[in-house]
Amino acid sequence: MLTIVSKEALLPIEQFRLYAVITRFPQGLATTLTKIQAGVYETQWGNHTIRILVLSEFPETPNNVFWQLYSANSRKIYTAKLNYQHKLNKVGSIINRLFEFYKMEGVVMTYTVDDYVKDHLNVLSPEEIFQKFSTEERLMGLSVEELENYLNKVKEH
After folding, report:
1. Is residue 79 in a domain?
2. In a domain, 51, yes or no
3. By mean pLDDT, which of 7-11, 20-24, 137-141 is the weakest?
4. Residue 7 covered by a domain
5. What's the pTM?
6. What's the structural domain count of the chain?
7. In this structure, are 104 and 131 located in the same domain?
8. What whole-number distance in Å separates Cα of residue 77 and Cα of residue 99?
9. Alpha carbon distance 44, 155 (integer Å)
10. Are residues 32 and 64 in the same domain?
11. Is residue 41 part of a domain?
């Protein structure tokens, strides 16, 4: 059944707010954010104010237990699982699926490419990388024209 509502019956736009819910602090936006409280920031986007909720920064309080389930922090997720009281069967089944997904032992969370590089790769300079290959290996795949152009540039300097 379609119900038609007049414009006058709608809530005023001032009663609406834009939110972004994320697990980690958005480093790329750091200079544009204003901290409201722990885990809560605001930024401007055009004429709109967006409130950003950074779940991993939320304090571990009883009223934040639900948010901790999505915090990308295995300790907080585990603590939330122990403390969260299922209030609705429908929500409870969703949460149970989330726990099943996490498998609660050894929660593996996604992290950024920068995190991966810092944790797993020894970043080498181009010079260090080139030293690992022979001259022939370094030139492999270059056309004769590309080689000649490079040699001409070197001769000019």
Report:
1. yes
2. yes
3. 7-11
4. no
5. 0.51
6. 2
7. no
8. 9
9. 53
10. yes
11. yes
Q: Are 22 and 78 in a shared domain?
A: yes
DSSP the chain: ------GGGSPPGGG--EEEEESS--GGGGGG-EEEETTEEEEEETTEEEEEEEGGGS---GGGHHHHTTSS-HHHHHHHHHHPPP--HHHHHHHHHHHHHHTSSS------HHHHHHHH--PPPHHHHHHTS-HHHHHTT--HHHHHHHHHHHHH-
Question: Distance (Å, rounded) from C-alpha 131 to C-alpha 138?
Answer: 10
Q: Encode pLDDT of 91-150 as tens digits.
A: 556 666 666 665 555 555 555 556 555 655 566 677 877 788 888 888 888 889 999 999
Where does residue 35 fall: left (phi above 0), alpha (psi -120 to 50 degrees), or beta otherwise? beta
> 81 and 139: one domain?
no
Q: Are 103 and 27 members of one domain?
A: yes
Q: Which residues, 6 or more positions from 38, have their beta carbon under 8 angstroms from its beta carbon?
A: 57, 58, 59
Structural tokens at position 3? 């119900």
Angle at 130 between CA 124 and CA 131, to 5 degrees: 90
Domain that holds residue 101: 14-108
